[in-house]
Amino acid sequence: MKQIYLLLLACCCSLSSFAQDELANMFQDSTKQHEPVIATFKSTRIIQGNSIETLKKHELDFRVDHRFGDIGGEFGGGKTAFGLDNSSDIRIAFEYGITDRLMAGISRSKGSGGLTQLYEGLAKYQLITQTTDDHIPVTVTLFGNAVASGATSSTVKSDAAYFDKFSDRVSYTGQVIIGRKFNRSLSLALLPTLVHRNRVTYMDENDIFALGGGGRLKFSNRMALLVEYFYPFRSQESKDYFKSKGRELYNPLSVGLEIETGGHVFHINFTNSTAILENQFIPETTTSWLQGQFRWGFNISRRFSL
Amino acid sequence: MKHCIVLLTTLLLLQLRTIAQDIYSCKNTTLSFFSATPMEDIDAVTNKAVSAINGKTGAVYFKVAINTFKFKKSLMEEHFNENYLESDKYPTAEFKGKILEVPDLHKDGTYPVTVEGTMNMHGVDKVYREKGTITVKDGKPTLDAKFNVKLVDHKIKVPTLVVKNIAEVIEVTVKGAYLPAS
């Protein structure tokens, strides 16, 4: 009995001291859950592969990507200013956010590989978004493009650039990007990718499946290190055939430094692949890091809110 | 003994009732801020802040989730959360204070007031004393107040590159229309 008495007395007393924090306590449960994770990557691209990010609604991204010539090896060295005299590929793109999850874009690139003078149409859609409370642990984004060559057909029938009909000029990429921001500085992504080229040369493969991996390590508020690698699953016979023809295939590996300055994202990168589009750098990279056939490159992204 | 308990319980309930009557809350408080520089005007707004006033003691409270602020440019919103307010580390900003001259909130009218208290933003506490207005209409109070927040006071760093685009002192406006808390 005495205990109840004391308890009630305590309640009455506590009410008067309650005044100070009572107002704050009213909203204890108002902290929200399932908040989407932001800024997993700073750009829609990791280096040349896609990141999980899409543009927000009514945002326009003007992108210029450039890859120079080989730094070392036969075509590099001092005579080409370590590749700066040559450009292996250049891409200029306009990409636009239709909704906060869906974006579309067009681009033109020089092309490096079987085909040149490339026109690209692309679309990207963020399917699910990682949440801060790990209710959803990853972000999943889908990417697809169609690329057509505008070049004049080669006269040599065995060439990849010999076009009998329009569809011979076209290739496609389909990609699922699964990414996770592990903490403030580390984000990783896995990129299962399928590249389909309508026309390929003898012993090449129309469909090539590849698995890509990429990451971003932010080391200051403005700068981050980037890395990206693709492993194409090509048959051994096909690999051996190209090797015997002196065109050994390599897996593209890129490293980069990302600098963010408000509306710009600037990448300086080094990569062994000469091409910028997935349709080419995944199946057609014949240049190797170990032979000095890697190059400077930069990506510039300028985002406008329209 | 039994009488004692009944008495105390009644007392307790009475006290609860009077407290409940004096407390007004607002679950959709509007918070907005404005940064003006010759280079760029930046403004953002949220109406998801929560607030409460105790009409008896004058205690006043605000809380806002940083990531509810909406900007015109989504990139600014991302930078605001990621680089400036670091909303992953410091998800909310909070103000605990007092209205110095509490008007009778049951009486219609417009009352100039002074609000004094501690604001916690970006994990840093700072004491503010700012002017505001309480308007009571049909027994429902509305509070308007402006806070001049100096970014350095809350250890919010602006990189030299964009120092011309972001004002050193940001004007934060608070506006809440309150209802008696149930």
TrEMBL record, chain A:
It comes from Chitinophaga silvisoli. Keywords: Signal. InterPro entries: DUF5777. This is DUF5777 domain-containing protein. Pfam families: DUF5777. Residues 41-304 form the DUF5777 domain. Residues 1-19 form the signal peptide.
Automatic annotation (TrEMBL), chain B:
Residues 53-175 form the Lipid/polyisoprenoid-binding YceI-like domain. Keywords: Signal. Gene3D superfamilies: Lipid/polyisoprenoid-binding, YceI-like. The keyword Signal applies. Residues 1-20 form the signal peptide. Pfam families: YceI. It comes from the Bacteria. This is YceI family protein.
